[in-house]
Amino acid sequence: KKFLFKILFLLFLFNSSLINASIENKIIANVGDKIISSYELKTKIKLLLFLSNQELNQENINTTKAMAINSLINYKLKKKELERVNFPIKKSKELNEHLSQISNNYNSDINGLKNIFNSQDLDFEFYLEEMKIQFAWQNFIFKRFKDKINVDENEIKVELNNFIKTESNIEVYKLAEIEILLTNEAENKKKIKEIQNQIKSEGFENTAIKYSDSPSSLKGGVIGWINSKSLSKNILGLIKSMRPGEITMPISQPNSIVIFKLLDKKTEKLSDKNLEKVKAQIMNKKANELINLFSNNYLSKLKNSSYITVK
């Protein structure tokens, strides 16, 4: 009888674990032949709230759910495409630098970051895999479109030489951004309002981590020091009159909307010595804009050609 009782008890535990597993891994979305499970959604929500320094409560979970699903859909689309073209998905220098930066935010190293994740009941391996896909995607887009990323170096040099004849100084701005990919007008308006409310309550950096579709979201939206010649006329016109800490209105871009925050600004002496530095900054900025444009277009095409259902 004791033996039979033990067998029945073990069967009960086994069946209970299967039931819990089925609940834990309930399919909540299909992205082509890939699925998004309830475990992945739960994990993604917890990660977004943790990284954006928000409390894990029902209100924040509710406001984060739709964004977490959209982020997971993008993740699955990218992963599926990288696998289709046999692009290597592995640890990279960029990933290690990102993990080190995140670790520094918590005054720790990568091993310490793992311990912090464990203490918060966060799946570090899930986060690591997501970041591997993100950096692999960036490298894939660059290699896929590098022949189309043409920035005329001579044209920039002529423009700067003309500028230096009339001006001896150049304004430099330290900026952060939140970029939102366009969907439809109603959804865009709703998302912009939600982001603006989040900026007021949670701050720009935390909102960028949580909402921004730009690669800069990994750094809280910070894109660093940008000289005035790297900026388009409409963006420069807005930022030039701003004070550090101020935020722009939403700015329409091809396929996206961008909100900038001015973190700091300064004036640099323009000379032949630093002319090459300014030229390199302009070329990098223009190249990154093209890479982001190609990435957004490519992802949009994948979405449009994929069968996506959310339950």
Describe this structure in words.
The protein is 61% helix and 15% strand. The chain is of the alpha+beta class and 311 residues long. A 4-stranded antiparallel beta sheet has the order 4-3-6-5, sandwiched between helices. A 3-stranded antiparallel beta sheet has the order 2-1-7. Helix 2 crosses helix 3 and helix 3 crosses helix 6.
Task: Describe the structure concisely.
The protein is an alpha+beta fold and 311 residues long.
Strand order of the largest sheet: 4-3-6-5
Number of DSSP strand runs: 7
N-C termini distance: 46 Å
SSE sequence, one letter per element: HEEHHHHHHEHHEHEEHE
Beta strand %: 15-25%
Major β-sheet profile:
4 strands, antiparallel
Helical content band: 55-70%
Instruction: Label the structural class.
Output: alpha+beta
Give Rg in angstroms: 23 Å
Tally of alpha and pi helices: 11
Mean pLDDT: 84
Low-confidence stretches: 1-23
Silhouette: globular
List keywords for this structure.
11 helices, 311 residues, four-stranded antiparallel β-sheet, alpha+beta
